[in-house]
Design a protein that fits this description.
By secondary structure, this protein is α/β, with parallel strands linked by helices. It is about 40% helix and about 15% strand. The longest helix has 24 residues. About 50% of the residues are buried. The protein binds 3-[O-phosphonopyridoxyl]--amino-benzoic acid.
């Protein structure tokens, strides 16, 4: 692979980064002391940093590079679209070919009667659209008091004021005055840490019934929608018990509550189907997509809306939209990405090749002394780290085991994220069995090293 060497030395780049670049979800002073790792190029599932190290990307960037890095087709489509029509808006009764073609393609791909697409620039923006959309829907149906949106603790739906309110991240709510009014949260279906003595199936039902209890408490006449990720991603790849989603669906149907499935991570092949809703048999009224829609090559998100809701919204002017709604370059790139995913049978590759191969290696980690639970759906997986497997115990110092393990991953040139003491992976969907073996060899080494370090420092203590 050709190396680009015309950038500055790493230390100079790090100094400029520290002086001027504020990073998301980062303590700036701490990073400035350490220096950011600088990624200079990527190909397939491999990243190269400014020191020339080759790193295997177990996170597909930020859960988004489904098609893998370095696809010339996407670059060429972007260049062509920039030449032909770099920008035009979709306001004022105007449209353009990329937005039309992508909306039509998404309507074809999305399950059921999810046939109407409202574009955004990101998942956060799309979820902000959803807040206004579901409330406006009920207002137009003559039920303006149906404004409450129920979400879940430890959910992630974005970082804007609206979407951050939908999310259930306590650390986010603690800063900047979130949540906005009329967003409430119920508990997540995290059996490993919160299931106590219940079986996973009983626990799944119990957690779903919190939705019914919350609706009863508020009155169904107040509740507009329930929003959830089919599988919580940023919360630590919390895979719900099989009993959970059918019960949630029953409750939403019984109480006339709109169901919003946030597929920003689970969409476009991640779970072994085009959408997580298909994996779990969920029938949402609205689906949020972003990330894998363009494999991260261009920023684009969307709300995909069912016939009944779209029809009510279409009755008058919906006073909502973004300069970059349906941006032609992003839409063209997304369309080409979807073409590649389909033509190269990437979803089938996840289901029939990559998942089964990764599953063997991933679940074998259940025998590792640090690992209490292994979960893998399609190509999104998690490991719960624990000081005591039998008790499913949490660590006395939450997050430290995860942090140390992530550091050992970096040191072994593999990227795996930690969410407190859960390790998560979501590699590009095109990963081959040989690459999965390399990934898993490095992950195993990192776990061994983290365990040795924690034992040496007396950190294997339960809370
Ligand atoms: N919904 C879900 C389910 C997400 O995972 C968003 C919405 C927001 O999308 P945008 O495009 O606005 O970022 C996300 C984003 C992490 C991490 O650390 C996860 C996300 C974003 C940033 C970090 O796991 N997910």
């Amino acid at each position: 692979m050709q190396q680009i060497t015309n950038h500055m030395p790493t230390a100079e780049l790090q100094a400029l980064d520290a002086a001027h670049h504020m990073h998301p979800f980062t303590a700036g002073h701490g990073l400035a002391r350490k220096g950011a790792r600088i990624i200079t190029r990527a190909d397939g599932v491999w990243l190269t940093d400014s020191e020339g190290a080759r790193i295997i990307d177990g996170m597909a960037g930020l859960w988004c590079v489904n098609i893998g890095y370095g696809r010339r087709e996407l670059a060429e489509v972007a260049a062509r679209q920039m030449t032909e029509l770099p920008y035009y808006n979709t306001f004022f009764q105007t449209s353009h070919v990329p937005a039309i073609a992508l909306a039509a393609r998404l309507a074809e791909l999305a399950p059921g009667d999810l046939n109407h697409v409202f574009f955004a620039g990101s998942g956060s923006e799309a979820n902000d659209t959803n807040i206004r959309l579901v409330r406006h829907y009920w207002a137009r149906k003559g039920k303006p008091e149906k404004t409450v949106i129920i979400s879940r603790r430890n959910a992630y739906h974005g970082s804007s004021v609206g979407s951050g309110s939908l999310g259930g991240m306590a650390a986010m709510h603690a800063q900047g005055g979130l949540p906005i009014p009329d967003v409430v949260h119920i508990d997540q279906p995290n059996w490993f840490l919160e299931g106590g003595d219940m079986s996973p199936e009983d626990f799944g039902i119990a957690r779903a019934r919190q939705l019914e209890a919350k609706i009863a408490e508020l009155g169904a006449h107040r509740v507009a929608a329930f929003i959830a990720e089919p599988i919580q991603g940023a919360g630590g790849v919390i895979v719900p018990p099989d009993s959970y989603w059918p019960e949630i669906q029953r409750i939403c149907d019984a109480h006339d509550i709109l169901l919003i499935a946030d597929e920003v991570i689970t969409g476009f092949g991640r779970t072994g189907n085009w959408f997580g809703c298909q994996t779990y048999g969920i029938r949402p009224h609205v689906m949020t997509v972003a990330k894998g829609l363009s494999s991260g090559y261009a920023p684009i998100g969307a709300s995909i809306i069912c016939d009944a809701v779209a029809d009510v919204i279409a009755g008058d002017e919906f006073n909502h939209g973004y300069t970059y709604s349906g941006h032609p370059v992003c839409a063209a790139v997304a369309l080409e990405n979807l073409r590649l995913l389909e033509e190269e049978r990437v979803v089938e590759h996840v289901r029939d090749v990559a998942h089964p191969h990764l599953a063997k290696r991933w679940h074998a980690l259940a025998d590792h002394p640090l690992v209490g639970e292994t979960k893998l759906v399609g190509l999104m997986g998690s490991l719960a780290l624990t000081p005591d497997k039998a008790a499913r115990a949490a660590f006395a110092e939450p997050g430290a085991a995860g942090f140390i393990t992530r550091e050992r991953c970096f040191a072994n040139n593999v990227i795996m994220r930690h969410v407190y003491d859960r390790m998560v992976i979501a590699p590009p969907l095109v990963i081959t069995p040989e690459e999965i073996d390399i990934l898993m060899d490095r992950v195993t080494t990192a776990l061994d090293e983290a365990h040795a370090k924690m034992r040496a420092e007396g950190m294997l203590k339960a809370a």
